[in-house]
Structure formats: structure tokens, C-alpha cells
């Protein structure tokens, strides 16, 4: 079943989405990127920064991307270890694997989140970060985990994908460490259809995450700037997602209130008893209350009850239990196949500098592109037709071209 945000869809989502469509229709004959091309994404980032009182927010195309960008920003890679709980979502660990780092699993406790004492036991000289995951909407023991990270000089990277709006001692989760990752896929507290975002208090981390999520550009799409130019990917959020997510952010408090009211009523009606107690909550007031979890004293009872209710215990939730990830098991067994990338060569054997391909350089230096339907400054294609050009436009553009050529080469 999709998450609460999906269920709270309404007129604002429609209005915002149509506003983007309308603005694109109004500017679709522009010759280059229209000025408002990232207006929704930037607007969402500002509103999220404000909502979470976080100095920096980077919208991305998924929660997985938020984790990956955070790891890239933190410089975590081959040889580094990241401690993650054994109850997770597969993306939490795949992000670590794709960063080239090594996931190290730690126990959860009856809160269904990282057990701080077990985290302590897993720390080695290679440990770079601890990744608490606020599973099922409820905050981890951030006081203890934050202390451990501080004491051992580790990064705290919160996976808050399931806990947008959850708080710990009055402060939103995702704002406790160097970075917090959120998802807005349809299963989450609020949704943009897909998408996610990253919060960080650190300007340099923001800059690096930005670079990584947008092909190595500086914020916001600048060619030059302060900081590190990284190899990047395209992990950008799009305008449609942002437009919907903005409407959803406006509903977040109401959604949480709604969840909590229901959960309170339900939990009051199912009090703890011998052999059954509610999940330990590190901050009951801060729970998103997307789910209400109980614990039995033994598995057989839990299974039996689950079966009776036509459901399964959490052990059987695919992709959320480390033991239920065959790809992970084979990775741990030393099989590199589930990791699509291998270690790079010790020393680059190629020359990547300009001039290494003289013919390419020459040809490109002699080429001029005129636009027909595609206009893209970064492609050097800024002049010509657009998809909406009329016959009169064609005449005008052709005329201008001929004239320019004639001026340079003569009539
Ligand atoms: C959903 C989720 C993610 C990934 O988010 P996507 O937007 O689906 O990429 C990461 N971690 C946890 C704990 C999640 O629940």
C-alpha cells in the first residue's frame, strides 16, 4: 500500500503540477533553458530547509540517490566501512556498496533500530560512518549514536527515508549528523511520485553533493565556484516531482497529526500484556506513526498471530531484512558479482588531458550547431529553430544565418 502522502493527494498537488505544465507551455519556444526551469526544485529545497531548520537541502531523484550523494560528499569509498543496522531497506546497503565502501552490519534492539552498544563493538580503524535508519517512521537513539560518532570521529549519516517529519527530543531526524537522507517515493510519509532529498548543515558537503548529483557542476549549475569538482551523475529531481512534493510538504504536519491520532487510538485499544508489548520508541511523540508495531516474547507466537491475521512478521518483509538479501549474502561470501563495479586500476594508463585526441579537437573546433527542436546552452546549441517555430520563424532564422556567414566569408 502506498504511504500516507499518497492518500492525502488533493487539489494543491494538481494545481502545482499544472502550474509547471503551464509555465513550460508558455516558454517552450524559448531558445535556451527558460529562466524558471528549476523553480519548483529550488522552491522545494528552500521550503524543506526552512521546515527542517537545516542550512542546506539538495533535492534528488530518490532516497537512494540522497544516500549515494551523501556518501560521495563525505568522501566515503573503497576501504572504508559504514555501520548499518540489519533491519534496513536494501537501498541503505546498496548505496554503501555503490560507493565502493564496505557495509558492516550491527544489531537492532526492540526499537527496531540500531543498538548503540552493538555499534560500539563493530567499530574498527576502517570505520568511517554510522548510518542509523529510522525504520518504520520512528527515531533511533540519536543521543547515544551521536555520542558514539563524536567519540570515535565517525560521520553520522541518517537514513530518514521512512521518517520524514519524525522528531527526536523535539528536533527533526535527519538533522543530527553530517547528512540526512529522505525519500519521497509513493510509500513514504509524503510523496512526489518518486524523489528524495538530502539535508546537511555543512556547506562543503552540500557543494560536493551538488556536484555529484549534477554532473560535476557547482551550485546551481555554475561552471565555476568554490569547492571540489567531482565526477558526477544525474541524480536531479525534476520539476513535476518537486511541484507535487511542495504540495505534500504543506500537508506534512496534518499527515503526521492524522497518523498519530489514529495510532494513539489504536494503541490505546491494544494495550501491552504478558508476552506482548509495543515496540520501544526512543521518542514516542516524535514517531511518524505510519505503523504501530508490537513485539511478542517468541517467534512462534508472533508467526501464529501473523498467520491468523493473514500477514507475516517483519522477518519476512522482503528487502528489509539483511538475511533476506541473497545479493548481500553472496557479496559477504567474497563473490564480487553482485557488485557491478570492480576496483579501478592502480594507476591510470590513459591520458585524459585536452590535446590527447587532436583530430577530435580539430573537428569540434570547426563545428557549429543550429537548433531545430532542441535548444541547449550546454550543448552549444543556442541559435536556430525550436519545436514550435512557424514557417515565418524558419525564414527569419535562415536569413540571419546567411547574413552572418556572408559577413564573415563574404557574399
Ligand atoms: C525507501 C527507502 C530508501 C530509498 O528510497 P527510494 O526513494 O526508494 O530510493 C532508503 N532507505 C530506506 C530505509 C527506505 O525505506
TrEMBL record:
InterPro entries: DegT/StrS_aminotransferase, PyrdxlP-dep_Trfase, PyrdxlP-dep_Trfase_major, PyrdxlP-dep_Trfase_small. One of its GO terms (molecular function) is transaminase activity. It holds the Pfam family DegT_DnrJ_EryC1. Its cofactor is pyridoxal 5'-phosphate. Residues 334-353 are annotated as: Disordered. Keywords: Aminotransferase, Pyridoxal phosphate, Transferase. Residues 343-353 have a biased composition (Basic and acidic residues). The keyword Transferase applies. Belongs to the DegT/DnrJ/EryC1 family. L-glutamine:2-deoxy-scyllo-inosose/scyllo-inosose aminotransferase subfamily. This is DegT/DnrJ/EryC1/StrS family aminotransferase. It comes from Kitasatospora misakiensis. The lineage of its organism: Bacteria, Bacillati, Actinomycetota, Actinomycetes, Kitasatosporales.
Amino acid at each position: 500500500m502506498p504511504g500516507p502522502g499518497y492518500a492525502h493527494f488533493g487539489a494543491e498537488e494538481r494545481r502545482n503540477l499544472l502550474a509547471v505544465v503551464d509555465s513550460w507551455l508558455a516558454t517552450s519556444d524559448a531558445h535556451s533553458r527558460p529562466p524558471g526551469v528549476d523553480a519548483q526544485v529550488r522552491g522545494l529545497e528552500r521550503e524543506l530547509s526552512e521546515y527542517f531548520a537545516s542550512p542546506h537541502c539538495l533535492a534528488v531523484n530518490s532516497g537512494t540517490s540522497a544516500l549515494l550523494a551523501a556518501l560521495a560528499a563525505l568522501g566515503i569509498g573503497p576501504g572504508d566501512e559504514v555501520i548499518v543496522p540489519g533491519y534496513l531497506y536494501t537501498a541503505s546497503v546498496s548505496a554503501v556498496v555503490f560507493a565502493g565502501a564496505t557495509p558492516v552490519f550491527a544489531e537492532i534492539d526492540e526499537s527496531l533500530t540500531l543498538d548503540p552498544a552493538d555499534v560500539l563493538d563493530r567499530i574498527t580503524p576502517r570505520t568511517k560512518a554510522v548510518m542509523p535508519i529510522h525504520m518504520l517512521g520512528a527515531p533511533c537513539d540519536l543521543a547515544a549514536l551521536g555520542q558514539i560518532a563524536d567519540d570515535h570521529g565517525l560521520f553520522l549519516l541518517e537514513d530518514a527515508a521512512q521518517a520524514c517529519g519524525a522528531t527526536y527530543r523535539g528536533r527533526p531526524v535527519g538533522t543530527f549528523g553530517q547528512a540526512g537522507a529522505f525519500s519521497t517515493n509513493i510509500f513514504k510519509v509524503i510523496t512526489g511520485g518518486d524523489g528524495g532529498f538530502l539535508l546537511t548543515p555543512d556547506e562543503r558537503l552540500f557543494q560536493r553533493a551538488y556536484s555529484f548529483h549534477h554532473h560535476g557542476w557547482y551550485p546551481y549549475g555554475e561552471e565555476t565556484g568554490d569547492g571540489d569538482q567531482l565526477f558526477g551523475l544525474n541524480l536531479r529531481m525534476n520539476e513535476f516531482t518537486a511541484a507535487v512534493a511542495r504540495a505534500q510538504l504543506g500537508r506534512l504536519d496534518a499527515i503526521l497529526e492524522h497518523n498519530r491520532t489514529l495510532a494513539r487510538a489504536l494503541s490505546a485499544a491494544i494495550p501491552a500484556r504478558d508476552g506482548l508489548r509495543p515496540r520501544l520508541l526512543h521518542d514516542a511523540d516524535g514517531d511518524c506513526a505510519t505503523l504501530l508495531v508490537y513485539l511478542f516474547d517468541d517467534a512462534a507466537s508472533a508467526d501464529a498471530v501473523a498467520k491468523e491475521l493473514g500477514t507475516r512478521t517483519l522477518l519476512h518483509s522482503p528487502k528489509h531484512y539483511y538475511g533476506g538479501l541473497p545479493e548481500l549474502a553472496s557479496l559477504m561470501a567474497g563473490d564480487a558479482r553482485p557488485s557491478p563495479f570492480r576496483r579501478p586500476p592502480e594507476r591510470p594508463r590513459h591520458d585524459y588531458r585536452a590535446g590527447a585526441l587532436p583530430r577530435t579537437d580539430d573537428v569540434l573546433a570547426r563545428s557549429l550547431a543550429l537548433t531545430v527542436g532542441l535548444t541547449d546552452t550546454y550543448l552549444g546549441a543556442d541559435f536556430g529553430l525550436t519545436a514550435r517555430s512557424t514557417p515565418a520563424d524558419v525564414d527569419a532564422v535562415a536569413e540571419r544565418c546567411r547574413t552572418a556567414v556572408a559577413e564573415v566569408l563574404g557574399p
